[in-house]
Design a protein that fits this description.
Length: 217
């Protein structure tokens, strides 16, 4: 058995071991965050710091992984629960950290509607109405056109920020509204009323939006 073969075998075992540890850590982190969603009142700084250390270890095992970057971004988002509401600068700093991780994840995996929706949401929170925000909202609409959660995200962000959107993106939001109206048990009409956008949405309706036309008639 040659030396090169042995070295290759050892490297393969080492790499497989790293991936195995990374897989275990990823499942532990996701399970913890899922528990946070179910009982957010039980999340505390100690638990957050514990999971933060695990994500740091995970990032060392599989650097530049889009999955890890998204987990890190979600973790920063959870950190907002521990910041006093009136500390605006710290709030924005943590939101920016989360945004940067999502942006990096989008570079690695540009086909994820989930990643783009989080970018659009954080850009809205930070009041950054720029080309990056517009592109994130458009990508969410295109990549998640038939996913109810992504539809709602686009519709809600679009309705809230309607007057900041360029006309082409307003049209994208209107098309997403039409798609949303085709889904069973949708709440699109309620959202339009909630954000008081009935008049402007109806003014922007397209010839290929028959369901929206019914709402506007």
């Amino acid at each position: 058995m040659s030396l090169f073969f042995m070295l290759g075998l050892l490297l393969g075992i080492y790499h497989a071991g790293r991936l195995g540890v990374a897989d275990v850590l990823t499942r532990q982190i996701r399970q913890e965050m899922q528990q946070w969603k179910q009982t957010p009142e039980h999340v505390n700084q100690v638990r957050w710091s514990f999971i933060y250390r695990k994500t740091q270890t995970l990032a060392e095992l599989i650097p530049q992984s889009p999955d890890v970057l998204e987990l890190q971004a979600q973790l920063y988002y959870w950190q907002l629960r521990f910041i006093v509401a009136d500390v605006q600068t710290l709030h924005e700093m943590v939101q920016t950290q989360a945004l940067n991780h999502f942006l990096y994840a989008a570079q690695k995996r540009p086909s994820s509607a989930y990643t783009w929706s989080n970018i659009a949401l954080l850009k809205y929170y930070l009041r950054q109405y720029d080309t990056q925000f517009f592109q994130a909202l458009k990508n969410t609409a295109l990549l998640g056109s038939w996913e109810p959660l992504m539809q709602r995200q686009v519709i809600e962000i679009g309705l809230i920020n309607w007057y900041y959107l360029p006309p082409a993106l307003q049209t994208v939001v209107v098309q997403t509204i039409e798609h949303g109206l085709q889904m069973p048990f949708n709440q699109v009409s309620q959202l339009i009323q909630q954000y008081r956008r009935h008049a402007v949405i109806c003014q922007t309706q397209q010839p290929n939006t028959p369901l929206l036309t019914k709402i506007c008639s």
